[in-house]
Amino acid sequence: MAYQKLWPAAPLALALALAGCGSSDDSSGPGDGLAVDNNADSCSVVSSSGQPIIVGSGVPGDPAAPEAASGYRLGYKAKYSSKYMVVANTPLATKAGCEILKAGGTAADAAVAVQAVLGLVEPQSSTIAGSAFMMYYDAATKKVTAYDGRETAPAAANGYYLARQDQADENSPAPVPSARRSGRSIGVPGVMRMLEMAHGEHGKLKWNQLFGEGIRLANDGFRVPQRLASAIASNASSLALDANAVQTYFNADGTPRAALSIMTNAPYAVTLKALADGGADALHKGPIAEAIVAKARQSVGDDAARTPITPSLMTVDDLAGYQAKKREPVCTTYRNAYYVCSMSPPSSGGIAIVQALGILENFDLAAHKPASPENEGGIPSVMGVHLVTEAERLAYADRDKYVADTDFVPLPAQGAASMLDKNYLKARAALISPDQSMGVAEAGVFGGASASYAVDRTQEYGTTHYSIVDAYGNVASMTTTVESSMGSFHMVGGFLLTNQLTDFSAQPQDSAGNPVANRVEGNKRPRSTMAPTLVFKGTQPGDFLMATGSPGGGAIIQYVLKTVVGALDWGLDAQQATSLNDFGASNSRTTNVDGSNTTQDLSGLKAGLEAKGHTVSTSAQSSGISTIMRVNKGGAVKLEGGVDPRREGIVLGDGAL
After folding, report:
1. Ranges of H-type helices in 525-555
2. Which of 526, 619, 629, 515 is nearest to 574 (CA)?
3. For residues 638 and 631, is the Cβ–Cβ distance under 8 A?
4. What is the mean pLDDT of each run of 10 residues along the chain (657 residues)?
5. Distance of CA 403 to the CA centre of its chain
6. In terms of Cα–Cα distance, which of 94, 78, 96 is closest to 86?
């Protein structure tokens, strides 16, 4: 088969080359003493006959050549390994990270390799010119660090950047063809700067060793995943305004590339080679940076109609001046038995999840487990969904009013400490009735300047997530994004530019003149809901239990909280907690219950919630949760992985899984 010729024994060769190098770059320190895995079956999957299959080989059963998406894949069971594990939402990205771990790399090393491949095979959700948050646990120091690679607005932007073509003219029309499709949505990228920072502090392999799989796939080709094919088709009219996107994602006759067809992306390979050789500077300075700025400032489309496009105000100085940041994670004890850490602002997701847990620990959730958890995680109980969604309404209320980029807008009172105060959250929990939904919650009262903030319910979309545990005990939980599907549709160097700035409020104030915390300001980072999360046993970091996170835009809080509660309160394993019907609520009367698994009867759950005043929606959800837990399995400590059945991802680790 021609397709099989694309996959010579590259994974094994890569592992041997990496293991044999024996040294790292100057930023990482010596690379001797690498925990190299010589098991030939590692990073493969087990076929129905029990034989290992190399991911990307093209043979029957290869998960990198999936059948058409069915919406929800039944029968997934937790996967187990003993040393290392990686879970991502596309098989080829999972494989790239696993091979790095196999060669003795750390979770930080593997994260770079995964991101490089995701920008190629899952561009509808991620890009190397996008943003990300990473929670990283260093096993040697027992320290958790939050890495912030969120985009920033150009220095020239102000509160009307998304609302007016001429920011200074109140009568100026809105950006065209839309704020998203215009250059105004494109943020100054940060993900590669962030990964470079994390690798410099935690990597063992050389930076330039981490891009090989992405380069190979871009040059040699890969099977187009079903979700990518669907994204190309659904966004065809917007992609058509960009000649680079058309050349990459469409056939010569103008039709969108079909699922399972073979696709190459030579410009992307060139970009990855530049990144491998020059570090993140290759993206932020020089020819690639100049090309990004030129693309963002494009004023007419490449289509025959020459469609007008409002340009970005980004400059090469904006790109050169971007800085990734280390943040203090938001952490709390849960039921005095667990220690939970998630992402701090400019993400609102971490604070909301930790707040919701602080509210929920005032209730006996263990008494409200799902029914038949062995069946895809089971069907959630009425009271379980009621309590969790009410806690979410309260957390979203605070999120919508108070949380933004804290470099520009401080959190109320004493900051995160006040919002996560146990007494404050106990008082919030007292607002929950066991019999009746509150519908729409009010934000908590803290006083001070924050009392005048307007409520901002700007919606977010897109993203992807991966979780990694290496052989040294280090853990990375990383959520990375292009924002909406295929971002801003601007393409350069083989990669898409984001529409991340639409996560800002389009207006700087409400109708009463109250300022919006999440308004656009020059060099500011838009609020996010991305919530990579780590859980430890006990009341401090040290005894790692769980890494999880999810894409899903504004609903990320709901997906991650469900998974954490499922594992900690309901005793579900990593796959059951991930597969369990997603449910949740933003601060509205609607309670969402995922209807993706059509084999389950949710009528009783829906009726029970409606009896408590919930307006229930059972439309299919679009999560993408990946979970790794450290458990006692058969008398030995094992890593237990779960992958979202709504996505195309897989779990890989040492041994064939």
Report:
1. none
2. 629
3. yes
4. 36 43 36 86 90 90 74 91 96 97 98 98 96 97 98 98 96 96 97 98 98 98 92 95 97 94 97 98 98 98 97 98 97 98 96 98 98 94 98 95 93 94 98 97 82 66 89 98 94 97 93 90 95 97 97 92 98 97 95 93 96 94 91 93 93 94
5. 19
6. 94
Which residues lie across from 303 on neighbouring strands? none
- Phi, psi at residue 584, to the nearest 5°? 165, 180
CB 399 within 8 A of CB 411: no
* Buried b / exposed e along 568-594 (16+ C-beta atoms within 10 A): bbbebbbbbbbbbbbbbbbbeeebbbb
For residue 15, give the nearest of 93, 132, 99 by alpha carbon.
99
Distance CA 70, CA 53 (A): 22
518: which 2 tokens? 């999440």
The pLDDT of residue 347: 95
Enter the tokens of residue 402: 């108070």
Q: Is 415 exposed, middle or buried (0-12, 13-18, 19+ CB in 10 A)?
A: middle
DSSP 417: H
Using only the alpha carbons of the chain, give its radius of gyration. Answer: 23
Cβ pair 341, 541 in contact under 8 A: yes
Is the pTM here over 0.90, yes or no? Answer: yes
259 and 225 Cβ atoms separated by less than 8 Å: yes
Does residue 143 sit in helix, strand or coil?
Answer: strand
Place of tokens 């996505």: 647
Phi, psi of 262 (to 5 degrees): -90, 130
| Alpha carbon of residue 200 to chain centroid | 22
Of 389, 390, 352, 341, the closest CA to residue 554 belongs to: 352
Residue 604: the pLDDT is 96
Task: For 510, list phi and psi in degrees, rounded to 5.
Answer: -90, -175
Q: How far apart are CA 87 and CA 466, in angstroms?
A: 6
Three-class secondary structure of residue 33 per DSSP: coil
Contacts for 174 with CB less than 8 Å, ≥ 6 apart: 163, 164, 165
Cα 347 to Cα 352: distance, rounded to the nearest angstrom: 9
Q: What is the predicted pLDDT for the residue at 1?
A: 29
